[in-house]
Amino acid sequence: xxxxxxxxVLCLALAGLGWHTTSAQLAMVEGGIxxxxxxxxxxxxxxxxxxxxxxxSPCMTNAQxxxxxxxxxxxxxxxxxxxxxxxxxxxxxxxxxxxxxxxLPKIVL
Length: 109
Fold this sequence. Notes:
By secondary structure, the protein is mainly beta. 13% of the residues lie in helices and 43% in strands.
């Protein structure tokens, strides 16, 4: 019975690992989204998706087209970066998050 209880506690602890855990290295990921006329695009929903860590809480671009993700776990595998207008996917690409601050390239839609 004790072994079963220990196994259950271990499984719950491992299930809790992921996006909201403290990590040895957390990163800030930021960047901007602009139109072809170089105007910032506010109000777009952006997310980071990782095959191991999962999906981030979405954030929206501000009036300057800027977005920021805080406390992103640094990983050796790339994250998918997704941009949505409502439910419509406008952009998706992969990026590595391996440092304390990651400035993604300017995205032009």
